[in-house]
């Protein structure tokens, strides 16, 4: 069924069914022994159908990153090791897929998944997660064929960014009762992703929710105007919306 599975770069009903079955094993608790086979199966799956993960729509890459990251906080060390190895393989395959230029798609989806897991309060076991990040870094440093490429430093940059998000989140927990401080931290996170529209949008949305909760509606509106301007600018670059973010200048000079 390879041809059917790869039609439309893997975005077809058959591939969705096959992938969802693979993913279901990660979503529902399995025994340690069963998980070993699940991870082996997923490694083969990524190697066999790279275009489904790294080309076209992001759904599959995003869903896989989210579930693997959840496994990276597992209490079972073998599951953590397997999950870290799978995440590393995903990054490496993405890097090879772009002819060793970048693994931006996986990088982005991992950061988005970390942000979502934090929002879903599914990222417990902070130290276990840090251990998994360390394993991934060690893989990158000891991967001989990748030594001469930009890959190891890109992996290091990714794990550093994840740590920044985790630290900011820990601070947010401390300042839960202090809305101004909380929003300040969220703002600095949104700003650190100025070059990554999807993530900037994620954090601006989350900021707006806090403002609404506190009854600060003009501040919430400002967040949403920024999100709209971000989308407008993105469409402008794709030549789908001529005026871009300047269309919002009348509302606020902040844009």
From TrEMBL:
Source superkingdom: Eukaryota
One matching Pfam family: DHR-2_Lobe_A
GO biological process, one term: positive regulation of filopodium assembly
Keyword DNA-binding applies: no
Residue ranges of every copy of the DOCKER domain listed in the record: 191-255
This protein's UniProt keywords: Guanine-nucleotide releasing factor
Gene3D superfamilies: 1.25.40.410
InterPro entries reported for this sequence: DOCK, DOCK_C_lobe_A, DOCKER_dom, DOCKER_Lobe_A
Gene Ontology molecular function, alphabetical: guanyl-nucleotide exchange factor activity
Family: Belongs to the DOCK family.
Name the record gives this protein: Dedicator of cytokinesis protein 11
